[in-house]
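Exam revision sheet. Question 4 asks you to relate a sequence to its structure. Input first:
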Amino acid sequence: MRKLDRLERPRAAAAGGNGASRSRAADPVDRQFVTALGRGLAILRCFNEADRRYLANQDIATATSLPRPTVSRLTYTLTRLGYLQYARSLARYCLGPAMLPVARAYMASLDVPAVARPLMQALADELKCTVTLGARERLSMVFLEVCHGGGLLGMRIEVGAKVPHGATAMGRAHLCATSDAERHELLDAYRRAGRAGWPRIRDSVQQSLRQFDRHGFCYLMGETYTDVWGVGVPLVSPLDGRIFAFNCGGSLHGMTRRRIVQVVGPRLLALRDAVSQHLSGTRAG
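Answer key, structure tokens:
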């Protein structure tokens, strides 16, 4: 069994700074890290499809903590390269067409969504829940595939949306499949970020690790999102070793812990195993 003191062991060389946006790669003593490139990519991360589609230089400076003159030079460069566009009528920037080939190339590199999609939809229809596939992006999990089964879950999740890594069943499942070193690094990042309720999250993560040891999956019931349950299962791709996670979720109405443990979790494990077996066959072929 994993011990709590192992979860809290600090990294050998913590990066410091504003934990959520820092990583070992961005450590100021890392001479391989190109700061200018990191800043440019940080600007691209500021944009999303919801309330941050259009941003002015001052908005970006606030979000990234970069000096406004630096932001101005970087947005100019990214606009020249096509990764940003300037909307003159709004006096703001938005993502440019050069981003699309990058996104398409990434999705094309993934065999998992195409293989998993029909199985995910069948399970979503059977259990009347939402079945998702995600991958870690810093301290978030990004949805790569979403299948809705017509249940009572109020929020409509879309591909590309993000949820907290350490506070969701999907993120916990990913965490269970990581190496000890990566797990300690992620948990240390949460602690350094100064997020409220760290002791509660730490204890809950420990519980999820125990669930994984016992069942092969982990689950949450109304912990992060009120009246919502979630079951997470990790998938380590046999093709390239990348770690993904499947998640089943829905309304707590009518759901019991017994049904999660005896029905939902095993069905999600069977889905994961079927996808893994198919990918292994592809690799062998």
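Marking note for examiners. DSSP finds ten helices and eight strands in the chain.
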